[in-house]
Amino acid sequence: TCTSLVSAACDQATPLVDTVSGDTSTGTQLFSGSCTGTGGAREAIHTYIPTQRGAAVLRMQSETDQGMYARSDCATPQSQTQCTDVQAAGDTENLVLLVEAEVPVTIIVDGFQSPAEAGPYTLTAELVLFIETEPNQTAGEANPWADPYVAAIAPSEDEDWIAVEVAAGAQLLTATVNGVGMECFLRQLDSEVEVIGPDGSTQLAFNDDIDQANYC
Is the pTM of this model over 0.85? Predict the structure, then answer.
């Protein structure tokens, strides 16, 4: 009996373009995520369609305890890709999603555990474009360096090779990796950096975490 209700709610999802304001008080009670939305909490549904491949940085602010989660298919709970409800009421929740051009993503804002946690919210989406071109798994496939160089480690065992040209003579090269959004907070991105010589195989330097504070 819920199938038609879920389909109707998904069909009526509000488009997310840059910034949208909403209120879950008038929302449905049909959905829940792995980290939020239980106990009959009310939700609001949005559809985000990225214009290009990249990282969608989502921020949701509410004065009540609400979280958000993303699905690749609105009506399918198993299609959830990310979920967050780690901040107290009044603080901003963050999600970072790997997205492909013109592939819709469902974003659901949901109260934590009760209908009493429903309320107004503001949801924003910022698309950080990738300049990376796959495959770049070897020295021969290395992408030319650009500043900034924005890419993704996906899947988890992925390697990204970047070719950096330096002037003749002794040079000091410093390579730094910074995570985007909440990956560092959630300890999801454990990056390693290796500097390889011109022959494509000789290791000149290696680092795996300066310290725990710089985990990414």
Answer: no
What amino acid occupies position 209?
Answer: D
Question: What's the CA gap between 152 and 72, in Å, rounded?
Answer: 19
Task: Give the pairing of strands 43-48 and 14-15.
Answer: parallel
Nearest-5° angle of CA 9, CA 111, CA 11? 10
Cα separation, 165 vs 145, in Å, equals 8
Per-residue burial over 107-125, b = 16 or more CB atoms within 10 Å of its CB, e = otherwise: bbbbbbbeeebbbebebeb
Q: Spell out the per-residue pLDDT of the chain, length 216, in tens.
A: 789 999 999 999 999 999 999 999 999 999 999 999 999 999 999 999 999 988 899 999 999 999 999 999 999 999 999 999 988 898 999 888 889 999 999 999 999 999 999 999 999 999 988 888 889 999 999 999 998 888 888 787 889 999 999 888 878 888 888 776 555 545 567 788 999 999 999 999 998 876 666 666
DSSP 42-84: -EEEEEE--SSSEEEEEEEEESS-EEEEEESSTT-GGGEEEEE
CA-nearest of 181, 189, 188 to 68 is 181
* Dist CA 208 CA 76 (whole Å): 38
